[in-house]
Specification:
By secondary structure, the chain is mainly beta. Helices cover 5% and strands 40% of the residues. It is globular and about 60 Å long. Keywords: Signal.
């Protein structure tokens, strides 16, 4: 947002019309390629019974409101079907139970998570205590909340005893076992200190890293990270092994609005350094870009065996960081055609997922429009007006084709959050989005594209020193004549979101696959002749 800030003498940043003339965006080196509009997705919100609403308010100076959205998929009752939790911001949160027939019903335990007196944003599931039941971490405008799952029969607030009630303006959170001790740790991404930034209160406004002690409690290890790099206005973050060295690093997408430090790539350098060694490798790897970062997608979109990252921006083109395999990144959004070189676009949540099961991850981007609230001089700018979302089909050569459905263009919405799952267990990935101050839309993938393509969903269950969710494990799938695909199990990315923990692989025409699993402890399993078109479960 920095390009639109007019800093007043009192230090409060306002977006004013006179300072907010949006400059024309230069033409990309490679033009966007448009393909036939996709027919893959249908709006299943009503038929599925999703009726929750989102009610929010937000002032650009940070004085009022909370820019929070949350949507998280997770099988809380262990019946094999993913359930859905959504946060309402000013409206109550809702937990939906999957009825296994394409419909959802409000869970009997939804009221325990509604938080009518709270203002909730992001949410993410994980089994932090390794008891076999997914627990839920909810980010709030004030203290965040950890809700422990009582074996599918309700939830209990364990925030105080766990010690993870961070009180900053949390936007997103991610779980990952950075020390490979078999217990999931937690990184909390906080937005900004506004309106009270002079001076910044380090204790209440920085990002947080919590180490799981294995006994239901956590230790705050934020002091092991460079404090000035924890003070960005963060929107999204993810654990990932970007350098393929076997341990989880952390990438944080920051908005330059309040503190232009750039995005941060925390390289995990192992034990020591008064607790643990972390180094911001952003500047030396090309990942430390200073921009108005918003949402984040992480996956190996080009099937070359390392993790790439796509993050959204406000007004500027989006960024595609392609991993070069040596620990560095290059921004290839122009060549790939996914920058969205259009005036007034604010990108939010983003997803890498293979919607047509051809073995190559495609891309979804949630977006809104920036424009004045009113046309008189001095009018404030706003960025939450309706706009079409974007769908890009992977062309298997490093580029994407814009296949955005016509209905999305004809019926634009103020979309921010997004998360994917195969909620109806038909082998085609679906997704849900949050629309600011409106509600939620569930897009069902009807398999209209990629007909005849096979698929394989891999669900890992940890044990014997590996966290129960197997977060951080890597799965490689090989098929005859198809690409070699690699994905990493993760919890938390996009924007305030939790995708389904199982890994979905499109197999194209292949009816079987070889699956190689690298568990977080480094042990390797190879399984040949795995039959396609199934949810395949592997336990330690």
């Amino acid at each position: 947002m920095k390009g639109f800030l007019h800093l007043l003498a009192g230090g409060v940043a306002l977006l004013v019309l006179a300072a907010c003339v949006i400059p024309p965006v230069p033409e990309p080196e490679f033009g966007i390629v448009h393909g036939p509009p996709s027919r893959a997705f249908v709006d299943a919100t009503h038929s599925a019974g999703i009726e929750a609403v989102h009610r929010g308010e937000f002032a650009m100076d940070g004085v009022e409101g909370y820019l929070g959205v949350g949507q998280a998929w997770g099988d809380y009752d262990n019946d094999g079907w993913v359930d859905l939790f959504v946060t309402g911001n000013l409206a109550p949160n809702v937990l939906y139970r999957n009825l296994q027939d394409g419909r959802f019903a409000e869970s009997p335990w939804s009221d325990q998570l509604a938080f009518p007196e709270q203002v909730s944003g992001g949410a993410v599931w994980s089994d932090y205590d390794n008891d076999g039941w997914l627990d839920l971490y909810i980010l709030n405008k004030e203290a965040n909340t950890l809700m422990r799952n009582l074996e599918g029969q309700g939830f209990v607030d364990v925030t105080a005893e766990a010690g993870v009630g961070d009180t900053a303006k949390g936007q997103s959170a991610a779980w990952g076992d950075f020390d490979n001790d078999g217990w999931l740790d937690l990184y909390v991404v906080n937005w900004t200190c506004l309106p009270d930034c002079k001076p910044v209160d380090f204790e209440t406004h920085q990002d947080r890293l919590y180490r799981n002690n294995g006994d239901g409690t956590f230790t705050d290890l934020s002091n092991t990270m460079a404090r000035d790099r924890l003070l960005g206005a963060g929107f999204a973050g993810s654990f990932l092994d970007y350098d393929n060295d076997g341990d989880l690093d952390v990438y944080v997408v920051n908005d330059e609005y309040a503190n232009p430090i750039g995005n941060v790539l925390w390289r995990n350098d192992g034990p020591g350094c008064e607790g643990w060694c972390w180094h911001d490798a952003g500047p030396e790897t090309g990942a430390g870009i200073v921009t108005s970062g918003m949402g984040l997608a992480v996956n190996d979109y080009d099937n070359d065996g390392d993790l790439d990252m796509y993050f959204s921006n406000m007004v500027r083109p989006m960024t595609l960081l392609t991993n070069d395999g040596t620990g560095g990144f290059a921004n290839t959004e122009d060549k790939a055609g996914v920058g969205v070189h259009e005036n007034g676009v604010t990108g939010w949540g983003a997803l890498f997922f293979d919607y047509d099961n051809d073995g190559w991850r495609d891309l979804f981007l949630a977006a809104t429009t920036v424009k004045p609230r009113a046309l008189e001089p001095g009018a404030l700018m706003d960025m939450l007006f309706e706009r079409q979302n974007y769908l890009y089909h992977n062309q298997q050569d490093g580029s994407f084709q814009d296949v955005t459905p016509e209905t999305w263009k004809e019926q634009p919405r103020p979309t921010m959050g997004a998360a994917y799952a195969d909620y109806d267990r038909d082998g085609w990935l679906d997704f849900v989005v949050t629309e600011w101050n409106e509600g939620f839309t569930l897009y069902r993938n009807q398999g209209a594209e990629g007909a005849g393509h096979h698929w394989l969903t891999v669900r890992l269950i940890g044990g014997q020193g590996v966290n129960r969710d197997a977060i951080g494990a890597r799965v490689t799938v090989e098929t005859e004549g198809g690409p070699v695909q690699m994905q990493e199990v993760k919890s938390g990315s996009s924007l305030g979101a939790g995708n389904e923990l199982s890994l979905h692989f499109g197999l194209g025409s292949a009816a079987q696959a070889t699956v190689i699993i690298v568990w977080p402890d480094g042990s390797v399993e190879t399984h040949s002749g795995v039959v396609a078109d199934q949810i395949w479960q592997v336990a330690r």
